[in-house]
Design goal:
This protein is mainly alpha-helical and about 450 residues long. About 70% of the residues lie in helices and about 0% in strands. Helix 5 crosses helix 9 and helix 8 packs antiparallel against helix 9. The protein starts with 5 loop residues before the first helix and ends with a helix. The N terminus is likely disordered.
Length: about 450
């Protein structure tokens, strides 16, 4: 079969890009609203298919960073102006930023504190999902929140939300640039980057819903590039930035220490102390709020729900309150095993250990919001471990937003995490067969 010239192939890359873009436009036109989930899922499925189409059939066109990043930016710009109805986290971001702009420590008081009566009488207060919890967002996150908080009293919530989203968009564009640079240094094809850059879930939760993980991705991508390029100082800085946006990546510290053997970590340690001080000086109430978030919230946690169901069937009792803490101990045991036994001498080994550790966290968590999946999706282009399982979950987890409509959440869990198990097993069997063939002596 005769192949078309390279220039024509590059033009063919328009097909998946335009398809995905039109799917995003359709989602924006319908509105990212909870009551529109059935039709949104249709457009989301089209977008996901277009992402896979680009990866498998238009790899050559994606070698051009302008094509890869240009489309990725276009998808995001379509959703940035949309209203964030699938999640209300952005309103807490604006609230924290508003307090900060007025010179008030956002960690010092819960939103419902009587001392904040002048603020809680504002309509923004009614949009907060946890007014009785202290803010748990670290100081670098608060800098992004300040973009919207400072504007809120002057221009209202719509423009404040837009300002925070734009700040996150700039951070994520920086992340995409570092990912492209990492692939260039690595000397590997660019096409796998669409698993993150063109993934509709990533676009929806960042550009559409404005979650702070978008800023965390900048640190993750910086660390990935620095590891590939053998820049230990910047590797540590990327690790620190990611951890100071979302805290969870801090569990990767022993892996970084084992890989770098302490080399280049001093600047990150010094900056980390500065970043941590505002939270540390605000007292134990922040850590109590973190415990409440972990211990009492439940969502999209397939293995937690599975164990809960089995234990209820065996004992006849609801073990939710004890199962959550028990799973934290399970995660700690997994983490210790990964820290101790997974080799991290090479950057490939370190990224694989990172993927395993974050996977262990998500699999033992009681809450796995769709945007949490971005923690592992950014690693998918560089790490084959559980690649297709996490891509399946990134597709199927969009369905979980329909829980707001009263749809059967248990059935969704079977689809999301049952699919994870199937894809993980399929990839394990495939990899074993490949290794078996490669180990056979040549005839």
């Amino acid at each position: 079969m005769e192949h078309p010239p390279v220039s024509e192939r590059r033009q063919l890359a328009l097909a998946p890009g335009v398809t995905l873009l039109l799917a995003m436009v359709a989602m924006a036109a319908v509105g990212l609203m909870r009551e529109h989930m059935p039709v949104l899922m249709l457009f989301y499925t089209v977008a996901f298919g277009a992402m896979l189409w680009a990866w498998r059939k238009h790899a050559e066109a994606l070698e051009q960073p302008g094509v890869l990043m240009g489309w990725a930016l276009a998808f995001r710009l379509v959703l940035v102006p949309t209203w964030p109805d699938l999640s209300d986290d952005l309103f807490r971001y604006v609230w924290d930023g508003w307090l900060l702009s007025e010179g008030i420590n956002p960690y010092a008081m819960i939103p419902s504190d009587p001392r904040l009566a002048a603020f809680s009488s504002d309509p923004l207060f009614a949009s907060l999902n946890s007014p009785d919890y202290h803010s748990v967002y670290p100081p670098p996150s608060q800098l992004f929140f300040l973009l919207g908080g400072a504007l809120y009293p002057k221009v209202g919530v719509m423009w404040a939300v837009f300002a925070v989203k734009m700040g996150f968009l700039l951070a994520e564009v920086g992340a995409l640039a570092f990912l492209v640079r990492a692939r260039r240094v690595q000397g590997e094809p660019m096409a796998p980057l669409v698993a993150y850059a063109w993934n509709p879930l990533v676009v929806v939760v960042f550009a559409g819903q404005g979650h702070s993980e978008a800023a965390m991705m900048l640190g993750m991508a910086l660390a990935i590039w620095a590891l590939v390029a053998q820049r230990p100082v910047w590797s540590w800085m990327g690790y620190l930035w990611a951890g100071m946006i979302k805290l969870t990546p801090l569990v990767l510290g022993p892996l970084w220490l084992k890989h770098h053997r302490g080399k280049g970590m001093a600047p990150a340690v010094a900056l980390g102390v500065v970043f941590a001080l505002p939270m540390a000086l605000s007292g134990a109430q922040i850590w109590q709020s973190l415990q409440l978030y972990v211990g009492y919230f439940e969502f999209n946690a397939g293995f937690y729900y599975g164990l809960k169901f089995v234990l209820y069937w065996v004992t006849g009792e609801d073990v939710s309150k004890s199962l959550g803490p028990a799973l934290r101990w399970v995660f700690l045991a997994c983490a210790v095993g990964i820290w101790a036994f997974v080799p991290v001498k090479t950057w490939q080994g370190l990224l694989r250990a990172t993927a395993l550790l974050l996977s262990a966290y998500l699999l033992t968590a009681t809450t796995v919001h769709p945007w949490y999946l971005t923690w592992v999706l950014i690693l998918v282009p560089f790490v084959a471990t559980l690649r297709w399982a996490w891509l399946w979950v990134s597709y199927a987890s969009f369905w979980t937003y329909s829980a707001y409509l009263g749809w059967d959440h248990g059935l969704q869990m079977w689809g999301v995490w049952g699919g994870f198990v199937i894809f993980a097993l399929a990839q394990w069997i495939h990899d074993r067969r490949v290794r078996s063939v490669e180990s056979e002596p040549a005839s």
